[in-house]
C-alpha cells in the first residue's frame, strides 16, 4: 500500500523526488530471493574461499554482460540469475561479497557453494567450501543484519515472503559415493540404503529452512546424472548412452525426495515446498535436443577428452563456437541457454514438472496476500 501511495504522491513532487520514489517502489515491488546449495546455483561465493572448486577464470563468463568470469559455473547467467529476472529483481549477490551491504540486503542473498552436498563429507576434496550447516549459519547472520536494517518484525516478514531455492544431491553421488571405485560411503551402504540415508538428512535440511522462517521453498530434484558429459567420459559411455548405474541412483533419489516434500507440506498444512522435476526437464532435452535448439546434449561446450567431459574447463580447453546450441557448458553444468529453458519450465511448467504448482501460480497467489 505504501508504494502505491508514494507513486500517486510522486506526481506532485520534483523530478529528483520522483526518482527517489521510483527507487522505493523498486525495492517494495520485488520479493527477496535466497539461494542455497551447490555449483548449479552458486554465483560466486567460492571466489572468496581457498578451494579448487571455482569458476573464476576464462572462458567462464564469456557470455556474461561483462564477458568476465564471476564464479558462476556457466558461460553467462545461471538459473538463480534468470529466476531473479522473472521475479523482477537484481541477481542476488554472493553472501561473502563485500558489496552485500545496506539496502542490497533487501534483495536477498546467495549462500550456495560449489562442491557441497547433503552430507558434510561430500566434496571433502574441495576443502574450504560452505557446507549446508555453514550456509544456514550465514543465513542466521544475514537475518540479524537485516533486522538491524529494518527491525525484527519487518525482517521476519521479508524472509517469510521471500522465494527460496535449494539445489542439492548431485554431489552426494558424483563427488562422494561414485567418486572412487571403493569410496567409503559405497563400502558402508548399498545404493538403496545410501539414498534412504541421504533423503533422511535432506529432510532435516528442509525442516531447518522452515524453522529459519522460509515459507516458499523451491526444491529441485537431481537431473539425470548418468547423462552429464563428465559421467559419460568417466564411465566410458558407448555412443553417448546414459550410465545405467547413475541413472538408477537418481531414479531412487528423486521419488523419495518428492515424497518428503509432500509429507512436509502435509505436516505444515501448507504449500511451502515446491518440487521441480529437473530430471524430466533434462530428459526432454536429451530425447529431442533439436526441438529446443540444441545440436547436442552429450558433449560439453568447454572441456577436453571424450564428450569434452574430462577435467576442468580452462583457457586451454576445446571451446564451441555457438554456446546456445550446447545444452552443457562444461562437464557438469548447463549453458545459459539451457538454464533459460529450465527456468521457463519452473515458471510455466505443468504439474508433471512442478508440484504442487509452477512459480507463475506461486507468484500470483502470493501477490494476493
Ligand atoms: C554436519 O555437521 C553439522 C555441524 O558441523 C552437524 O550438526 C551435523 O549433524 C552434521 N551432519 C551429519 C549428517 O553428520
Ligand atoms: C502453471 O500451472 C497452471 C496450473 O497447473 C497452469 O494452468 C498454467 O498453464 C501453468 N503456466 C502458467 C504460465 O501459469
Automatic annotation (TrEMBL):
Domain of life assignment: Eukaryota
A single MF term (Gene Ontology): hydrolase activity, acting on ester bonds
Matches recorded under CDD domains: SGNH_plant_lipase_like
Signal peptide limits: 1-20
Pfam families in UniProt: Lipase_GDSL (PF00657)
InterPro entries: GDSL, GDSL_Est/Lipase, SGNH_hydro_sf, SGNH_plant_lipase-like
GO biological process, one term: lipid catabolic process
Record keywords, A-Z: Hydrolase, Lipid degradation, Lipid metabolism, Signal
Similarity section: Belongs to the 'GDSL' lipolytic enzyme family.
PANTHER family according to UniProt: GDSL LIPASE/ACYLHYDROLASE FAMILY PROTEIN (AFU_ORTHOLOGUE AFUA_4G14700) (PTHR45648), OS02G0617400 PROTEIN (PTHR45648:SF166)
Protein name: GDSL esterase/lipase
Organism: Zostera marina (Eelgrass)
